Amino acid sequence: MLRRRGGVLERLLHHGDLPVLVRVAQTASDGVLFGARAATRAAAEHGIERMRFALGVDEDLGGFLRRFARDPLIGRSLRRRPWLRVARRPEPFEALAWAICEQLIEYQRAAAIERRVLAALGRRWADGDGRDSGLRDLPAAAVLAGTAPARLQSFDLAGGRALVLVRAAREVARGRVDLHSPDHERAWRKLRAIPGIGSWTVEMLALHGQGRHDQLPAADVGLLKLVGRRLAGGDPHARADEGQVREFFAPYGEWVGLAAAHMLAP
Q1: Which of 68, 112, 169, 242 has its CA 20 to 30 A from that of 3?
Q2: How far is CA 94 from CA 36, 81, 200, in A?
Q3: In whole angstroms, what is the distance from residue 139 CA to residue 117 CA?
Q4: Whole-number Å distance between alpha carbons of 106 and 148
C-alpha cells in the first residue's frame, strides 16, 4: 500500500472512484514536498490532504512537548524524537477494516491476511503505458460489503471477523456510519452496536484513522505487556488488564494515544 523509492514515499488513494497517486519527499531544508497524479485537481488535492493527515505534518504538538518534556516515563523519548507521530491510515475506513482483521491475533498473521485481501480485492494503479504499478489501495467499502464472508475466510480471516468486516463495510457503504463526520462519537456508537466490534476496534479507528490522541486502545497486547512489566517491577511475563492500562495512562489526559506511541517506541 505504501512504497519507498529513492527517498520518495508513494501511496495509492482514491477520491470516490478516481485513483490518486501521491508522492511525498523530504527536502534538503527539512521541508516536506507533496505531489499527486489524478484525473482531476479535486482528486489530487484530496489525495494530498489525506496523506498530510496520515503523516501528521500539520499537527502542532508544542503543548504536548512542553507539558511532558520532563516526564519520568516519556520525557527522554520526547527530547530525543520530538518528531514522533502516531502511525495513521490515510482513510478512517482503512483503519477500521484493518483493526477488525487484527482482532485477537498476532500482527504478522493479520498482515498476511491483509495482503491477501489487497491482492484479491484491492484497487490498482496502472501507469501511462497500462502496466500495473504494484501499488494497491483498500477495496472500497461497497466492495467489501458485497463480498461473501466465505471468501474472506479463504484469506485466513476467522469466520466471525469476516462477518464483522462485511457488516461494518455495509454500514459505511450505505451511509449509516459516517467516519468522516466530526461527530466521531456518533459513528463509534453505531459501530459498537455491531456484534464483534468492541472498545479496542473503535479506539484503533479513532487513534489511527481519525487523529484522536485522546483515545487509547487499552486492550492492545503491547500495552498490556508494557504496563504489566512496569507494575510488576520488570517481570517480562507479567501482563496488566485493560483497566490498569487506562489508569496507568490517565495522567496524559488528551494525549494518551501519543504518550503510548512514545512509550512503545524502541
Answers
A1: 169
A2: 20, 27, 15
A3: 8
A4: 24
Give me 165's grid cell: 468486516
Strand 2-5 with 8-15, pairing = antiparallel
pTM value > 0.85: yes
Written as one letter, the residue type at 256 is: V
d(CA 46, CA 48): 5
> Which residues contact residue 193 at a Cβ distance below 8 angstroms, ignoring those fewer than 6 apart?
none
In terms of phi and psi (left: phi > 0; alpha: psi -120 to 50; beta: otherwise), the region of 234 is left
Tens digits of per-residue pLDDT, 79-89? Answer: 999 999 999 99
Please say whether the dihedral angle defined by the alpha carbons of residues 120, 126, 130 and 134, taken in this order, is positive or negative.
negative
Residue range 10-55, pLDDT digits in tens: 999 999 999 999 999 998 888 999 999 999 999 999 999 999 999 9
Q: What are the φ/ψ torsions at residue 19 (nearest 5 degrees)?
A: -75, 145
DSSP state of 103: T
d(CA 157, CA 81): 36
Say how far apart CA 44 and CA 50 lie, in whole Å. 10
Specify the residue for cell string 527530547. 79
Residue pair 201/191 in contact (Cβ under 8 Å)? The answer is yes
Reduced to 3 states, what is the DSSP secondary structure of residue 34?
strand
